[in-house]
Specification:
The chain is an alpha/beta fold. It is about 45% helix and about 10% strand. The strands form five sheets. Strands 1-2-5-4-3 form a five-stranded mixed sheet, with helices on both faces. Strands 9-10-8-14-16 form a five-stranded mixed sheet. A hairpin with a 6-residue loop joins strand 3 and strand 4. The longest helix has about 40 residues. It is globular, with a radius of gyration of 30 Å.
Amino acid sequence: MSLDQFRAKDTDTATELESLRTQHLQKYLQSQGLYESTEEAQLREEVLGHLDQIVKEWVRGVARHLGLSESVAQEANATIFTFGSYRLGVHAPGADIDVLCVGPQYAKREHHFFGSQPYCLEQVLAGVPGVQEITAVAEAYVPVMKIKFKGVEMDVLYASLAQFLIPENLDLSHNSVLRGCDEQSVRSLNGCRVTDTILRSVPDVSTFRLALKAVKLWAEKRGVYSNVSGYLGGVNMALLVAKICKWYPRKLACTIVMMVFMHFTTKYWRWPDAVHLVPQKDDPSMGLPVWNPMDDRDRKSLMPIITPVYPAMNSTHNVTRCTMFVMMQEFERAFEICKSILFSPRNTTDWSPLFEPLAFFEVPKAFYVLIELIANNSGDMEKWDGWVRSRVRHLVRVLEEHANVRPFPESKSAPSEEHPEDSRPRKYYFLCITKRSPQLDEVNPNGMTAPKTYSLQRNAGATQGPAKTSINITQPIRNFTEQVRAWKDAREGMEVRPLVKRQADLPAWAFPQGYNPLLRRKQAAGTADAAPAAAAAPQPTKPAGASSAGASAPVAAAGAAAAAAPGAGMSAEVTTASGADGEGVGDSTSAGNVAATGPTGAAATASPAQSAQPVLESRQLSAAAAAAQPSRVLRQHQQQQQQQQAGVQGVVGQKRVRQEEEEAPQQQQQQEEHGQQGPGSAACTLSRVSTPELLAAEADAKIVNSGQDHYADWLGQTVAHMAPGQDSLGQTVAHM
């Protein structure tokens, strides 16, 4: 039986358990504030209606300005369409609205949409009461005008059709609307066309929306939500969720979320095979370029997700090797967590582990590239930020040839107290850099060699080789700085300052908790170092030499434990240099080599050996404590490893064993109350039957266990039909 036949046959569902898990998921999303109020929804509709009237008056003014007759001017029309998250129904409170304005052929973008003339829409909006902010980005890949109207932010795009009259009930689904349009108009129109195709393709819109809300929140929390930075954007996630909804039309949102993470990992999906929501259709009469895996550019795509309308394009062309492997690791982590949630023996579902925030700034043995942006005012900063952010991914592509790079998807702003002498606007972007060992390189199914990236688990114990090598990133950062500064539209006061910092040197405002936890741990370790010396001081019966030896014994033991700990002998070093113009292209504390050595290595080259000794002893004591008592993350990682080895049926078995272990203390207490009788005694049996709470618990357990059996059987059959080597996902399903 093929995977398609299995999906078609899959009609029986554990509706009671699945509905319970889905209800808990929806309640969790509501607790996270992802649903807007009725008042806000009404305000959005009111603003959109007002904007529609404004564009109609604007296009009539354009017709009069061009000297057209009054009758033609009265019949002139323009209309607006929404797309993106608002059109899909998955927008969050306060999110912006993506709007497309469609006008006739005589209303041009460069002459009538943007501009300061009284007949230009930009100038018309500036005179409308309630319009607070207007920012025109005419040079963007998709030109956009950002406005804030009555507190509602909107991104307004424009498409000029090859028609003299725009009907009020215009249908954008036909390819004929693209005929005669320029490239910018085609891109703008496809935003609406893609959104409408997604909604028409999914069998249950409410299930699709709930699952997509969950996936978007997960991506934001785990730092993989930004198409510009090389991760997934809203359209990419919508296409993946819609694909799973088509494959499993009878499943509810909780299962759809789990299957998204399972299907699109490298274990089951043969990247770079493209993901198609619908079969790709070409229209040779239009002559527009479409996605072609045989083309040189498209063949290099690592994670292609193709738009479902003509002209088909790859919506994930910004994905790099490092960002792809980061996403694959996050997908695998999310799948394991979803399995544990759906197979949980408890009636209440805790979805918070899936959405645990990423500890981006707490990666062991990592260095961070901090890119500081400065402009004279907020308007210049928005333009400068858009330009620099589009260049950061090119820096990532260069740096990933030398090390593992993980970009932080959003910018951060420092508090005003950080620079009291300079009040100009500032933004910061961060890149996390770790060493890569040649032993970890692997070959992808497409034949390309790509290294694995690091995991952002705080106590990751993967060894990366004993060799101590330098990572020279001076030239890539210098080239990036020169390219950014060469922007033709740069204005006075626009500055960019890249710095390389160690984790201990990161500013406190970069951390979500408001302080640098590494410094806190070092302070706590320093207090722990002083305790043995204070305890050993008032001992006059011991010789002086014995007291000294006793004080150094804990440090020696800690050093041995640190040497035995995973990855303790690994060293990390980043080589940088000062910029030619004197600005800090490199470490904020010193230029040159910045190294962090293991217990067997030499002291760090960025500081004297005397100052490095207390830090080294603190690290050794911390490593000894970690070796003596594994952390919560490490224990969770070990449990996940055991679950993967045991398989799906083994996971359910382990849950049942854990449930029996939890019930064991209750049974023992009941035995003590009834004279220490055995588990098979009549008194123990009568006691369990006669307790109303136990009767209710047993009834709920039967429902959950039956749901677990169904989930285990269904998921086991699904995985069996997805075994590597079959063409179910690699070839056939890719073109469903």
